[in-house]
Amino acid sequence: AVVSTQSGHYGRDMPEDAEFTLENVTDDMGVLAVTGKYSREVMSNMTDSPMSHEEFPFLECRQMKLAGFDVQATRISYTGELGWEIHHDAKDTGALYRKILEAGADYGIGDYGTYATNSLRIEKGFRGWGAEMNLDKNPYEAGLGPFIKPNKKTKFIGQEACQKISQNDLKCKLVVMTVDTHGFVDPEGNETVWFDNKVVGNTTAGAWSYNSNTSICMAFLPPHLTELGTNVYVELLGRRFKATVVNDPLYETEAVRTRNMLKKEAASG
Question: Structure pTM?
Fold first, then answer.
């Protein structure tokens, strides 16, 4: 869905006299993610390239050799924890994957799945395409306002539409909530949200949060129900469970935690 949407934008808006061509190489590229507490050590075991926080900062993208393969490594992770996304030639995926497992054997490396990723990304307030970001909601309703400069001098697709949106006219807002399920079942998304015996919104994603030891979810609610501490009810398998609007993000990302730690160390001298 993302590829088709982006390809549509690029093809439609590319100037007729453009001095470049557009080619979709998605199927030619692979991506592996090395994420977690020991990801820096694992990466360092496979390269001579410096991997420290100072030498490979958050969001930096670098062409490098990793276990002998040419890769493009970016220090970013959809889990919000320390990690790298490694883009590479698709034909190298299997061999590179095995090298990563070898490099991380002493650290107990293993695979993790979409349920774990979903739990971590909800804790960090990361939006997902097709869930929190979709064609039915505008970016301000999805809480993406801080990332938009509607009056930017450089024109961009959707600029006029963003300028017309008033913060006072939003029909809903995205929130993060904890849900008191009492161990019954975790929300997963697309569940009904109730308030005063009326349907007021829907969840977009949900999971068990191991950092908070409770069920959590994201949901679109009317603006007047989005204040911190507001209680609503999420319907799960025919039963309604109390939910509470909490901070977004519920848990800070590794990049923010590291930055705050370094600031504190510098202040203490």
Answer: 0.91
